[in-house]
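Retro notes, structure queue

What went well: the backlog is down to a handful. What didn't: a couple of records were mislabeled last round, so from now on we paste the full input next to the output in the thread. Example, using TonB-dependent receptor from Gramella jeungdoensis:
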Amino acid sequence: MTNKRIFLLGFIFSLLNVFLFSSFAQGPSDLRQFTISGTVIDNELEVPLEYATISIVNVEDPKDLTGGVTDAQGEFSIDVKKGTYNIIVEFISYESKTFKNRTIDKDLDLGTIKLGLGSENLDEVVVRAETTQVDVRLDKKIYNIGKDLTTAGGTVSDALNNVPSVTVDIDGGISLRGNENVRILINGKPSAMAGFGDTNILNNLPADAIERVEVITSPSARYDAEGTAGILNIILRQKKTLGFNGSLNLNAGTPANAGITANLNYRTENFNLFTTSGFRYFDAPGGGFFDTRYFENSETEYSRIYEDRDIERLNRNYNTNLGMEYFINDRSSITGSVFYRYGEDEDVTTNSSDYYKRNEGLVLETTRSENQEEEDNSWQVSLNYINNFNDKGHKLTADFQYENDSETQLTNIGERIDSNPTDIDFPLLAERINTTEDQKEYLLQADYVLPFNEDSQFEAGYRGNFENEITDYTLFSENENTGELEFNETFSNKFDYTENVQALYTQYGTKIGNLSFLLGLRLENTNLKGKIDSELTDQQLEEVFGIPIDTDFDNNYLGLFPTVNLIYELAEEENITLGYNRRINRPRGWFINPFPSRSSTNNIFQGNPNLRPAYSNAFDLGYLKRWENITLTTSVYYQHETDAFERIEDNVAGSNVVRRIPVNLSSNDRTGGELGILYNPAKWLRLNGSFNFFRFKTEGSFNGRDYSAENTSWFARFSSKVSLPAKIDWQTNAFYRGASEEVQGNRDGYLSLDLALSKDLFKDKATLSLNVRDLLNSRKRQSYTITDTYERDTEFQWRQGQNFTVSLIYRFNQQKKRQERRNGGNEDFDEGEF
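Corresponding output:
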C-alpha cells in the first residue's frame, strides 16, 4: 500500500470513526470505546509532523481498519473498541513505526513517537529537497534553510536577503515588508550574536550556521513588543543525532574573502554537546558620492560641494558557540551555552571634495582621510531549563542570559589641500578620536504552558531585559597655532544609556471546528535613562547642536499590547489567516546620542536625545492555496504608527554642513500586499517568485517645516533551480527593488542578480559550490534629496564589484538530509511568500 493510499484511507477512516462509533460510547462494555493518542515528531529536528498517517488494524480481523492523521502539533487521538491491534505510524519519506499486538481495554497514550528519514527514500530526497522550505504556523512562518547555493560561503545577512518579505539594503540594514524597525532574535532571545540591535554584525556570522528563520509578522504575546515591522527569529544549528557528527565548510573568494566554519555535535543518551566555530577574513571595498548644490537663499560660502568617498574595510573575526544539553530525565533538561566573538577591523575612508563658488567655478580641492582601527570582544552566557510535565504540552521553561560587549576604536583624521588657485583660507586640522563602548545586558524569562485539552491551551510568562551602554568619546583637535593635538571639550563626552524592559504576558489558544485562534495580552514597561557627561552646559549644547538637549533624563512608558491570530481551514490545502497586534519602536542609543559623526566635514549624522518610542497597530490578512505542483499565497496588511521615526536632512545654519537627524513625526500609515507563487513543473526544475507592494503615508513637522509625504514602492524576487546530470545544480536568484518617493526626495530602484553552481562529491559526503553575488555590480543606493536650501544627488555601494566565492562543505557521520514534506505544510520555497 503506497503512502498516498495509506494517508487517504487513514483520513477516510478517521471520519468514519466519528460517525460509526460515537453512538456506542454509552453502550455495553464490549462495545465501549477507548482512545489511542500520541504525538509524532521529526527525530532529528524534533518538530511536529502534521498529517502523519495513523493506521489501526484489528489483528483478529485485518479488514477492521481505522485511523487518522496528526494535527499541526503532530498530535492524534483515535477512538477504537476493545480488541488487539497493530498500530502503524507513517509519514512520506520517513521510516514507519509499528506497535504490534497492542491489547486495548483502556485508553492508550503512546507518548512521543519519533520518525527518522527513510533510507529507501533518501536518494529522491537528496535530489528534490535542497532549497529553503517553509512551514506555516498560527503566529509565524518558518523557513528551514536548505542548500541555497547563492549563499554558500556567505553570511547571515546574505541568507536573510533570500527569505521572502525580508530585504537587506546596501548598508546591511534589514527590513521586513519595507519597514526597517524589525526585531532580530537568536534562538528566541536578544543576543550578542545579533550585535545588541546592530544588524550589521550579522555580516560577520556564516550563513551555514542557520538551521531556520522564523518570520513573525504578527507576533504573539510571548514575544517582546519591540519591532513595529515584526520579528525575525534566527535558529542556529544544533544536531540531535546520536554519536559524533558534523560538517566542515571552507570558502575563499574575491574581493579577498576566506573563511572556515565547523559544526560539530556529540550526543549520548544523557547529554548533547554542540559547537559552531568559525574564522572569517574579508576585504570589502565600498564607496559613493555626495553632490550638493546650494540655493542662493542658503547663505553658504560655496554654491556646490562634490564629495567622492572610497572605503576600504579589512575585517578579521572569530566566533564560537559552545553548548551542552543535559537530559535530567525523559521529560526535563538543562542547556548551557557560551558564545564568544572577537573582531579586528581596519577601515580607511577617503573623502575627496571639490568646492565651487557662483560665477567662479572650481575654487578648492581637498582630500580628507580617516584611518580607524577597532577591536571588538563579545561574549554571552545562556542557561535554559525545560520541564515537560507530560507529553501533551504541559511544560515550564526558564532562561537566564548575560551578555557583554566591549569595543575600542582609535581614529586618526587628516586633511590636505590638493588645489587652491585663489588662496582660500581653509584650515587643515588633524584629529584623533578615542572611543570605547561597553554594553551589558541581562535577560530573565519564564514561560508556563498548560493545555486544557487536545485543542486548547493557556500560556503565561515574564520577561525582563536590562541593558546598559556606556560610550566614552574623546576628541583631540589640532591647535591651528601650535600644530599640537589638544583636548576638544566641545565634542568630547561620556554617554551612559540604560534601557530596561519588563513584561508580563498571558495568552489562550484553541481550535473550534475549522477555526484556530490565539488571543494574547502583554503588559510591558519601558524605562529609558540617559546621562550625558560633557564640559558644556545644557544651554551651550543646544547652541552647538541646534536642538534642546536634556543631559539627564529618566522616562517610563507603560503599555498594553494585545494580539489576535486566527486561521480558518477552508479545505485541507487552503486556509485564511488574520492577525492583529500592537507594537513599540524604542530608540536605540546611537539614535539618541547628540554628538555628530566626524567621517566627513560636510555630511554628518547626529542623534536626537528627545526621541520618544513609537507605537503601531497592525492588521494582516492572508490566504494560502496548494495544488499538486503550484502553491499560491497572498496577504494584505495595514499599519498605523504614531510618533514614527523619520531621518530628515537640513542645512546647519551659517555653514555648508548637511545634517541627518532622527525625529518623531506625528503618524505613518503603511498599506501593502504580497503575492507568492511556487511552481514545480518537473523533478529537475523548480521556479518561484514573490511580489511585495507597499505604500507609506507620513504626516508631521519638525522645526516649523511640514514633512508630510506619500511613498509608494515595491520589490520582487525570482528564483530558479535546475538539477543537471552528474549531480550538478544551477541556481539563479534575481531581486528588484522599485523606485520610491521619500519625505525629502526620491530613491532610484535597483536590480541584483546572483548565480551559483554546485556538485556533490565523495558519495554525497561533500559539496563543491561556486557562486557570484551581484553579477551586474548594480546593488547601489541612488537617491535625490531636496530641501529649502539645497538639493543633492547621492550614491552609495557597501560592497563594490562582483563577489566570487568557492565553497567546499564536507559532512561526516551524517546524511545529506533535506526533507520534502509535501503533505506536512513544507514546500521547496526559496523566494515565494507564504
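Agreed that this is the format going forward. Reviewer comment attached to the example: The chain has two domains: 3-116, 243-828.
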